[in-house]
Predict the 3D structure of the following.
Amino acid sequence: MNATADGLGTARRAIVRSHPTPAAPASPGRMATVDEALGLVIASASARKTERVRLEDAGGRVLAAPVIARRCAPGCDVSAMDGYAVRDADLAADWNSLRVVGASYAGQGFEGRLGPGMAVRTFTGAPTPRGADRVVVQEDVRRIGERVFVPGAAAGKRHIRRAGSDFRSGDVLVEGGVALTAQRLVAAAAADLATVEVVARPRVLVVATGDELRSPGEGPIAPESIPESVSFGVAELARVYGAEVTIRRRLPDDLDQLQAAAHGLIEAADVVVVVGGASVGERDYSRAMFEPLGLSTLFSRVAMRPGKPVWFGQAGGANIVGLPGNPTAALVTARLFLAPLIAGLAGRGAQSALIWRRRALAEGLEATQQWECFVGGQLAGDAVRPCANRDSSAQKTLAAVEVLIRRGPQEASAAPGAFVETLDF
């Protein structure tokens, strides 16, 4: 876990190192390392689909093509200030008396030409009259009736924005491959575009499996039943990283029913997330349900705690992520593997979801064993405090987690003040 850090311990780097694992499936029977698994996810996370959307619906979307101006800006010479448009030739004396012959407003300019001894009242953004050399700001002149007295010879700023001085027709205002922020939306609208081409949001379908599950708030509260909770968090995480979550439903632990549903799942989504059934129990069918569809498993387990049963594969053109059923394990693995997959498919770049920061521990951590360990933590100023409850099924503690702390296999105990890698959760 080598990473450079500044004095504040806030250095950033992607979790996949300078030599990422090639996009080849992990060897059968061997657990993938976290970095190997991430390499396989990232290799599958390239944006593939685009669509054209209205500008008012484009906020936050990633441009699939550059924004190219359809017009010049300004479209003509316009005033940069409120004042009077004048000719330099009329400003020879200490005070120059000029006749006000009209006004120019934004959207309704003065149609005549400025002749000798004339001035036109001109407002910010209004076209400057033909023949004008400058706009003298209103604070510098004196107006008496239909005459305006302008001081001094022509000098200083002209306060005229020339046609095309901001951009010209055909100029690229925003490069492709970036998200449309508030600032970039302004530029796209200024380019006179009603629509823009963006990367399509990946369609994500979240399926929770398990006979013990029931919908929250429904039916009698029986000790053996469990309110299905994980799909709500997974769906929201997918939305945060750029997905359109299309369906969420529960399926029983019945292989025939799961296989019957599998074809419809991969037809409906770019990414299918199956929660539960990922381990090796008698009714763990999350991979078996896709095998008749030609499932290619890229990794089947990852050497990590929590979340070892997480798996990743592809079938029928869809990416399939299998998450453990325990809530903390499911959300940790979704943050590590689903988030970069969605970010990449949404055009944001998979690495944008994998920015690690070095922070000091507010409390110590015990030594790790043979696998990498991810511990939930809370921010304490510039430091991070590990959560006391490390159970993979914990949900109350999960609600308070702000960051994940990454610890390598067989690391010694870490004292308060030691620096650790953290990922915003």
